[in-house]
Amino acid sequence: MTTFKWEVKKSTIGAINKVQLETNPIQEPLNYFFSGIKPEEYPRLLHQVNNKTGYENNITGMTFSGDLDPCDPPFPEGKLEIYHQVFGEQFIDEKCFFHILDAFANQLLITYQNSDNNFPEKWHNDMKDGIKNLKIINE
Protein backbone atom coordinates (compact mmCIF):
# COMPACT_ATOMS: atom_id res chain seq x y z
CA MET A 1 0.00 0.00 0.00
CA THR A 2 1.38 3.40 -1.00
CA THR A 3 1.55 5.82 1.89
CA PHE A 4 2.44 8.80 -0.27
CA LYS A 5 1.13 10.56 -3.35
CA TRP A 6 3.35 10.93 -6.37
CA GLU A 7 3.46 12.73 -9.71
CA VAL A 8 5.90 12.58 -12.60
CA LYS A 9 6.22 15.72 -14.67
CA LYS A 10 8.50 17.71 -16.89
CA SER A 11 11.08 19.45 -14.75
CA THR A 12 11.08 23.20 -14.44
CA ILE A 13 14.39 23.31 -12.57
CA GLY A 14 17.21 22.12 -14.83
CA ALA A 15 17.28 18.50 -13.65
CA ILE A 16 19.76 16.29 -15.51
CA ASN A 17 16.96 14.41 -17.20
CA LYS A 18 14.34 17.20 -17.62
CA VAL A 19 11.80 15.05 -15.76
CA GLN A 20 11.15 14.92 -12.04
CA LEU A 21 9.27 12.87 -9.49
CA GLU A 22 7.38 14.75 -6.80
CA THR A 23 6.13 12.92 -3.73
CA ASN A 24 3.97 14.01 -0.83
CA PRO A 25 5.16 13.53 1.81
CA ILE A 26 8.67 13.78 0.38
CA GLN A 27 10.42 10.44 -0.17
CA GLU A 28 14.02 11.64 -0.59
CA PRO A 29 15.71 8.33 -1.48
CA LEU A 30 13.03 7.61 -4.09
CA ASN A 31 12.98 11.14 -5.54
CA TYR A 32 16.75 11.29 -5.79
CA PHE A 33 16.96 7.74 -7.14
CA PHE A 34 15.09 8.87 -10.26
CA SER A 35 16.90 12.20 -10.56
CA GLY A 36 20.28 10.52 -10.04
CA ILE A 37 20.04 8.46 -13.22
CA LYS A 38 21.04 10.02 -16.53
CA PRO A 39 18.50 9.66 -19.35
CA GLU A 40 20.84 7.48 -21.40
CA GLU A 41 20.86 4.96 -18.49
CA TYR A 42 17.09 4.44 -18.39
CA PRO A 43 17.01 1.63 -20.99
CA ARG A 44 19.45 -0.31 -18.78
CA LEU A 45 17.35 0.41 -15.68
CA LEU A 46 14.22 -0.83 -17.46
CA HIS A 47 16.06 -3.96 -18.58
CA GLN A 48 17.27 -4.66 -15.04
CA VAL A 49 13.82 -4.11 -13.53
CA ASN A 50 12.16 -6.27 -16.18
CA ASN A 51 14.57 -9.06 -15.22
CA LYS A 52 14.01 -8.35 -11.51
CA THR A 53 17.70 -7.75 -10.93
CA GLY A 54 19.21 -4.84 -9.08
CA TYR A 55 20.54 -1.65 -10.62
CA GLU A 56 23.24 0.74 -9.47
CA ASN A 57 25.33 3.63 -10.68
CA ASN A 58 27.82 5.89 -8.86
CA ILE A 59 25.25 7.42 -6.50
CA THR A 60 22.03 5.45 -6.48
CA GLY A 61 20.61 1.97 -6.86
CA MET A 62 17.90 -0.54 -6.14
CA THR A 63 17.82 -4.11 -4.90
CA PHE A 64 15.21 -6.83 -5.34
CA SER A 65 14.85 -9.49 -2.65
CA GLY A 66 16.27 -12.03 -5.14
CA ASP A 67 19.55 -10.08 -5.17
CA LEU A 68 20.17 -10.77 -1.48
CA ASP A 69 22.76 -13.17 -0.13
CA PRO A 70 21.41 -15.93 2.12
CA CYS A 71 22.99 -14.25 5.15
CA ASP A 72 21.26 -10.87 4.45
CA PRO A 73 18.10 -10.05 6.39
CA PRO A 74 15.02 -10.60 4.19
CA PHE A 75 13.00 -7.72 2.73
CA PRO A 76 9.41 -7.19 3.67
CA GLU A 77 7.24 -9.21 1.25
CA GLY A 78 6.49 -7.48 -2.07
CA LYS A 79 9.05 -4.72 -1.47
CA LEU A 80 12.29 -3.64 -3.07
CA GLU A 81 14.97 -1.35 -1.68
CA ILE A 82 15.89 2.02 -3.16
CA TYR A 83 19.07 3.69 -1.99
CA HIS A 84 20.97 6.89 -2.58
CA GLN A 85 24.49 7.69 -1.42
CA VAL A 86 23.41 10.95 0.24
CA PHE A 87 19.70 10.52 1.02
CA GLY A 88 19.72 7.00 2.43
CA GLU A 89 17.51 4.06 1.67
CA GLN A 90 13.87 3.04 1.77
CA PHE A 91 11.67 0.08 0.99
CA ILE A 92 8.92 0.57 -1.56
CA ASP A 93 6.15 -1.67 -2.79
CA GLU A 94 7.27 -3.30 -6.07
CA LYS A 95 4.00 -2.56 -7.89
CA CYS A 96 4.11 1.09 -6.82
CA PHE A 97 7.71 1.35 -8.02
CA PHE A 98 6.76 -0.22 -11.37
CA HIS A 99 3.96 2.33 -11.82
CA ILE A 100 6.28 5.23 -11.00
CA LEU A 101 9.01 3.88 -13.30
CA ASP A 102 6.46 3.43 -16.10
CA ALA A 103 5.26 7.02 -15.74
CA PHE A 104 8.82 8.36 -15.46
CA ALA A 105 10.10 6.42 -18.49
CA ASN A 106 7.11 7.49 -20.59
CA GLN A 107 7.66 11.13 -19.63
CA LEU A 108 11.36 10.81 -20.54
CA LEU A 109 10.41 9.36 -23.91
CA ILE A 110 7.98 12.21 -24.59
CA THR A 111 10.42 14.85 -23.37
CA TYR A 112 13.35 13.60 -25.42
CA GLN A 113 11.29 12.96 -28.53
CA ASN A 114 10.79 16.71 -28.83
CA SER A 115 14.12 17.95 -27.56
CA ASP A 116 17.44 19.27 -28.77
CA ASN A 117 19.18 16.32 -27.10
CA ASN A 118 19.24 13.91 -29.99
CA PHE A 119 19.35 10.45 -28.53
CA PRO A 120 19.93 7.73 -31.12
CA GLU A 121 16.99 5.78 -32.46
CA LYS A 122 18.27 2.76 -30.50
CA TRP A 123 17.67 4.66 -27.24
CA HIS A 124 14.07 5.41 -28.24
CA ASN A 125 13.47 1.80 -29.32
CA ASP A 126 15.06 0.39 -26.15
CA MET A 127 12.91 2.72 -24.04
CA LYS A 128 9.73 1.67 -25.86
CA ASP A 129 10.61 -2.03 -25.50
CA GLY A 130 11.48 -1.60 -21.83
CA ILE A 131 8.21 0.21 -21.10
CA LYS A 132 6.21 -2.43 -22.98
CA ASN A 133 7.92 -5.24 -21.02
CA LEU A 134 7.40 -3.37 -17.74
CA LYS A 135 3.66 -3.26 -18.42
CA ILE A 136 3.67 -7.03 -19.04
CA ILE A 137 5.37 -7.92 -15.74
CA ASN A 138 3.16 -5.44 -13.89
CA GLU A 139 -0.12 -7.09 -14.97
Describe the fold and architecture.
- With 139 residues, the chain is of the alpha+beta class.
- The protein has one domain (5-137).
- Helix content is 39%, strand content 22%.
- The chain is built from 4 helices and 6 strands.
- It has helices at residues 28-35, 42-50, 94-113, 121-137; strands spanning 5-10, 19-24, 55-56, 60-63, 79-84, 88-93.
- It has a 4-stranded antiparallel β-sheet. A two-stranded antiparallel sheet has the order 1-2.
- The relative contact order is 0.18.
- The mean pLDDT is 89.
Set out the fold topology.
Elements: E1 5-10, E2 19-24, H1 28-35, H2 42-50, E3 55-56, E4 60-63, E5 79-84, E6 88-93, H3 94-113, H4 121-137
Antiparallel strand pairs: 1-2, 3-4, 4-5, 5-6
Number of domains as seen in the coordinates: 1
The shape, in one word, is globular
- Number of discrete helical segments: 4
Task: Report on the biggest sheet.
Answer: 4 strands, antiparallel
> Main sheet: which strands, in order across?
3-4-5-6
Strand content: 15-25%
Q: How many strands in all?
A: 6
Listing every helix as H and every strand as E from the N terminus to the C terminus, the arrangement reads: EEHHEEEEHH
Mean pLDDT: 89
Q: Can you tell me the residue ranges where pLDDT is under 50 for at least 5 consecutive residues?
A: none
Q: Helicity, in percent?
A: 25-40%
Rg? 15 Å
Q: What structural category do the secondary elements indicate?
A: alpha+beta
What's the end-to-end separation, in Å? Answer: 17 Å
